[in-house]
Design a protein that fits this description.
single chain, 3 domains, 23 helices, about 5% strand
């Protein structure tokens, strides 16, 4: 019977192309639980059928313990929706390393995409959702029999129903590996290097005679033929009256000895100033929001190295003018900052530019206040006569009829008619139906253009009842709605 290693060598290389890394296109089957999936992970790690460097020239060289550690974190997720930041925090790996090992698990047929995450600039990243898969090569190598319980279900839903005798021993070994947890290897500290060297010398039989004085030396780390313990300075007894002696080791700083962090630097270096200026620009300049901070730091490196502040950069951009349309913020910033450090080459010039910028901002603010005040006065002020001559003649005629009606209402004979406002408002208008239809058509045309002057002037001059009689309830209601929208601070309304 051929051995397991011979069977592994006869099997083809394990690799799943990118088009087959989705659940719908995968030839493997979904793992029933994380334990059985970890058996397949350890089998891929020990078989050597998958070698990353056959398919790419960068990244890890082999499917090793680090990939198994990443797989252990995935085996505990239900559903399997690992974020990159989560895996970085759990495994202490870099973001690029986590992406490499996730790609290796997909290429080995152990993971399949259900939903592929997305990253939008300026927004939260969406995590991908994976299905833990058992490769078809695993079932073939161990002689695992599968069955499809539902004929209408996809092929990846098949389940294991048995195993060949030849694969039982290997399955037991994989079960032991899957039950153990692969941990991160401990870092090799320099303090342990002499101890390992001493053990190596002892194993090789290299023994050096040491005097009694040398063996009694405090803080002895390893045996040595030449010891400095003989020259150790011991203070006299009168210096030890307080019961304390000076330690030969240097004292730690106050912040570090108290368990706190090291104090930060008081001043930034050249690169730090560039990134600080870039971060402030991306927050304060509207057309730079969403741009890459490292790119902006590179673009603004000349002014940052010259000691410019973000206020001075904003003053310079104001001097250069504003663009109506910005397609690429970093490119526009590079054009506007070209030669800025040579024009404003002294702090006095930059201070003058900042003062001019503040003065321009104050003037713009006052101009805006005056505009808002004038608009409110225009809306709340007295009524102005329209410019249209025909409309002006009609309104003057209506005023004359209204004044005549007011004078006639003073006669005692018409006192009883004052209780009927509809008849009083309709009687003064000696207007035909054709004229009223033409007046309504003119008001409707003005409403389409966004103007309510005709109806509003009639309401102010003759009252709401007369306006409803002349234009109808529908046109008056639409004019009032349009006027309220125009006066609202939450609505911007423009006419062309």
């Amino acid at each position: 019977m051929a051995s397991d290693s011979d069977e592994m060598r006869t099997m083809p290389a394990l690799y799943v192309p990118e088009a087959s890394q989705w659940l719908s296109t995968s030839v493997g089957r979904i793992a029933g639980d994380g334990y059985s999936w970890m058996q397949a992970v350890h089998w891929v790690a020990g078989s050597g059928l998958y070698k990353p460097r056959r398919h790419r020239s960068h990244g890890p060289r082999a499917f090793g313990p680090t990939t198994v550690r990443v797989a252990q974190e995935l085996a505990q997720l239900f559903p399997c929706r690992p974020g990159i930041e989560y895996l970085v925090r759990r495994t202490s790996l870099s973001e690029r390393s986590v992406e490499y090992h996730l790609g290796m698990l997909r290429e080995a047929g152990l993971l399949a995409w259900i939903v592929k995450g997305t990253r939008v600039s300026g927004g939260p990243a969406q995590a991908s959702e994976f299905a833990r898969m058992i490769p078809l090569e695993f079932d073939v190598a161990l002689g695992i029999r599968t069955v499809q319980r539902d004929e209408d279900a996809p092929a990846y839903t098949r389940a294991a129903s048995g195993i060949a005798e030849a694969g039982r021993e290997l399955m037991a070994k994989l079960a032991k590996k899957a039950s153990r947890k692969v941990r991160k290897p401990r870092s090799k500290t320099p303090s342990k290097a002499p101890a390992r060297g001493a053990r190596k010398d002892a194993e090789q039989g290299v023994v050096t005679a040491v005097s009694d004085e040398a063996r009694c030396t405090p803080m002895q780390v390893r045996t040595s033929a030449s010891s400095t313990a003989g020259t150790t300075y011991l203070p006299p007894e009168n210096k030890l009256a307080s019961g304390a002696s000076k330690s030969p080791t240097p004292k730690k700083g106050k912040a570090k000895a108290a368990g706190g962090r090291k104090p930060k630097r008081k001043s930034l270096n050249k690169i730090g100033r560039r990134f600080q200026l870039a971060g402030e620009l991306t927050h304060r300049v509207e057309w730079l929001r969403g741009c890459s901070v490292p790119r902006i730091a590179w673009v603004a490196r000349s002014v940052a190295d010259a000691g410019w502040t973000v206020t001075e950069v904003l003053a310079w951009l104001h001097m250069r003018g504003q663009a109506e349309r910005v397609r690429r913020g970093s490119g526009l910033l590079a054009v506007l900052l070209n030669g800025a450090e040579m024009v404003l080459d002294s702090p006095a010039k930059r201070t003058t530019a900042v003062d001019q910028w503040h003065a321009a901002q104050e003037a713009r603010r006052r101009h805006r206040i005056e505009q808002v005040r004038a608009e409110r006065e225009r809306q709340d002020g007295a009524w102005e006569s329209p410019a249209d001559a025909a409309l002006k003649q009609e309104i003057e005629t209506a005023f004359a009829h209204a004044n005549q009606a007011a004078r006639s209402n003073r006669h005692p004979q018409v006192a009883d008619d004052l209780d009927q406002p509809a008849q009083v408002s309709a009687d003064p208008f000696e207007i035909s139906d054709a004229e009223r239809t033409e007046l309504r058509a003119q008001a409707r045309a003005q409403l389409r253009d966004g103007s309510t002057d005709l109806i509003e002037d009639t309401i102010h001059a003759l009252g709401a009842a007369a306006a409803q009689y002349l234009f109808g309830d529908d046109l008056v209601r639409r004019a009032e709605q349009l006027a309220s929208f125009a006066r609202s601070s939450l609505t911007t309304y423009k006419t062309q």
